[in-house]
Design brief:
The protein is built from eleven helices and eight strands. The chain has about 270 residues and is α/β, with parallel strands linked by helices. The protein has a domain of about 190 residues: Rossmann fold (3-Layer(aba) Sandwich). It has an eight-stranded mixed β-sheet with strand order 1-7-8-6-5-2-3-4, with helices on both faces. The structure holds S-adenosylmethionine (SAM).
């Protein structure tokens, strides 16, 4: 009989090929098991200035949402702040497999992750909805002159235009302001939350606040996804939350971590178990 470990490594290989990410390990409650040395680049990214070169050729731009997403990846403003195409594919696949009715996203930015999530939601049962939260004021601060370059009066107006061209506007509710305050005030009690993607304030306090804000609505069996879990991404918060989960949310989550191609900013999937 084939040893179990070889079965796992074969399926892991298949998974890596499918979504361009691979499993680092599974742990319950306290991960602490992340590799000692994270790798910032999983393969050579010399000279990369936008994600477009990583956009899968097999995604058909005749689909409006794919054309809109591709146009976003053409923009220098979405590199590297937006999720990479491979991290987006992973999000898209998670949504399709988990089949949530309600998804929360913190950190809309220019709506790259919003496109991946909302397009997957649209392929599910009618009525599935994404609540996306952002202060909608970071663009000019990070990229002075960006709004003029994007030809939009505001970051929010740009996002609304992109989602409209993608045919996804109806599926997404955009909420301006601090994400944790927005989540607490949103009417999520009735529907509950089955998946939350946290990608807004990346400080330890910010990620902890978002987690605490979404927890009252998050179903048992629901999922949290943290982006930028590798400290080499330049962000401390997501790693802090993973490493301190036993203090922040003892016994409430199972955790799986992933490298994300081609720059390993890292992603973690937390499943609520208690
Ligand atoms: C890394 S970007 C998100 C990228 C986006 N998920 C994507 O894939 O394109 C982070 C966003 O979080 C927003 N943000 C930061 N702190 C926030 C807060 N406290 N509340 C709401 N949004 C916040 C910023 O305005 C910025 O647009």
């Amino acid at each position: 009989m084939r040893p179990l470990s070889s079965v796992f490594s074969r399926s892991r290989e298949r998974f890596r090929n499918a979504v361009g990410a691979y499993m680092l390990g599974v742990s319950r409650d306290v991960p602490g098991s992340h590799p000692a040395s994270f790798r910032r680049a999983l393969r050579s990214t010399t000279g990369m200035t936008r994600w477009l070169d990583e956009f899968p050729a097999w995604l058909n731009p005749a689909e409006p949402w794919i054309a809109s997403l591709r146009a976003l990846y053409e923009r220098p403003q979405t590199y590297p702040g937006s999720v990479s195409p491979q991290a987006g594919l992973l999000l898209h696949a998670l949504v399709q497999n988990i089949a949530p009715r309600t998804v929360v996203e913190t950190g809309t930015y220019l709506s790259v992750s919003t496109h991946w999530i909302a397009a997957a939601l649209r392929s599910l049962a009618p009525g599935a909805h994404l609540w996306s939260f952002d202060t909608f004021d970071a663009l000019e601060w990070k990229h002075p002159g960006a709004l003029a370059a994007l030809g939009a009066p505001s970051q929010r107006a740009f996002v609304e235009g992109a989602l409209g061209r993608a045919g996804l506007r109806e599926i997404v509710t955009l909420t301006a302001g601090d994400s944790s305050a927005g989540i607490a005030a949103a009417p999520l009690r009735e529907c509950g939350v089955q998946l939350a993607f946290l990608d807004a304030d990346h400080t330890p306090a910010g990620v902890t606040r978002d987690l605490r804000a979404v927890e009252p609505w998050l179903d048992i069996g629901g999922y949290l996804v943290l982006h930028d879990t590798n400290p080499a991404s330049g962000h401390e918060g997501p790693r802090y939350v993973l490493d301190n989960l036993s203090a922040i949310a003892a016994g409430r989550y199972e955790v799986v971590e992933y490298c994300t191609m081609p720059l390993d900013f890292g992603m973690a999937v937390l499943r609520r178990v208690g």
